[in-house]
Amino acid sequence: MNRVHLKTYGCQMNERDSEAVAAMLRARGYRIVAREDDCDILLLNTCSVRDAAEQKAIGKAGNVLARKKKNPDFVLGILGCMAQNRGASLLDQLPDVDLIVGTQKFHQVPGYLDNLRAARDAGVPLGHTIVDLAEEAGSQNTIRDHELADHQVGAFVSIQQGCNMDCSFCIVPKTRGDERSRPMDDIAAECRGLAARGVKEVTLLGQIVTSYGRRDYVHTDGVSPFVQLLERVHAIEGIERIRFTSPHPRGFKQDLVEAYGRLPKLCGYVHLPMQSGSNRILRAMNRPYTRERYREIVDALRTARPDMYFSTDVIVGFPGETDADFAETRELFEACNYDMAYVFKYSIRSGTPAAGMEGQVSEEQKEARNQILLEVLRRNSERRNATLVGTVEEVLVEGADKTGLRYTGRTRGNRVCVFEADSRLIGSMVPLRITRASVSTLYGELVLAGVGDGAAGVPA
After folding, report:
1. pTM of the model
2. CA nearest to 104, candidates 204, 175, 15, 187
3. 139-158 confidence digits (pLDDT tens)
4. Would you say 122 and 168 are in contact if contact means Cβ atoms under 8 Å apart?
5. CATH topology of domain 389-446
6. How many H helices and E strands in the chain?
């Protein structure tokens, strides 16, 4: 009973947590299997951002539990945000779950599985579900191990956990706890280790990544701890690109804006959550900035890096949102000319202030507003991508595409590219002449060295 499959729901931080758990399990002697049907132990790492995400995971767990009736030794564990949010109450719906582990206890999973295996090997059923949701000092420092695939060129690095922002719509402070940052030296060492293993691009992760270290390190000559960390990672030989997510607009002070002009490895791509373009709704959301300040940040970043690419998060249908409020959101959304956006219809999350607010918006209005912004986004992305046709972009070759016939990589602006190449180029930065563009993908041909302005594909 040592074959484990991890299924992850939700954000990049959840993906990173799952990867760290997989690495810890492998070090303990467990086998990580790619197919769910091949496992003895299934771990669901869950999301709680919206109720639909929780219901999806609960439905999956319910279906899987039928497997236990045929094989009582089969183990099902629920990890992460939903486990933290619902805790032992999950047993009302899923009484046969073996393990419920919260967001500060991922590193305890190998030990708990060892206990389950030992009990069953001895023929003594444990007799109860293991539930661990407790806070643990220093738990943010345990997400450091990596389970890298062959020739993997990019990796996530967790630098900060938790959130103190208390946005009125968000359950993350409950599921992830208070803000906690990892030591800068540990993060730099982790990035050096990744570079030694062939990783070229790192994405720094945190619930509010730009708040990194604000309680642990001092500003030096006006430079925040987060920008100090960017400088440390930038200096690491072998790391060629740096990204980060998810920031908060209040973190974009002058030092961070200027970093885009002086740190070449910091990619010209920013995920900048807007949430709403209405100052009235922003106040109701408890978002401490205005539409005017948000636009100033966007303009400052485009001044520092004229070719900057932007993505954002927007919530439509927040309680009390009127047609006039939404019109302001649409206006700002169009003005910022996003390349990518995650547009969400407001979802009630019990336990948050917004859940009890008056003026809940109908599903029909939410859907209509959602479609309007998605259409604006489609036009923006199509227009921006069309301007790239004929240009040469630096692309980091990641590997074969889904067809296995061509290769894929990303530009510094985080645009997906598809092209013919050779497997020897995986992990290389290559010049790619863009020949065609869709809304979400660029297609191109490698520019061969020494051919002048010519371009050609490299046979696979």
Report:
1. 0.94
2. 175
3. 999 999 999 999 999 999 99
4. no
5. OB fold (Dihydrolipoamide Acetyltransferase, E2P) (2.40.50)
6. 13, 19
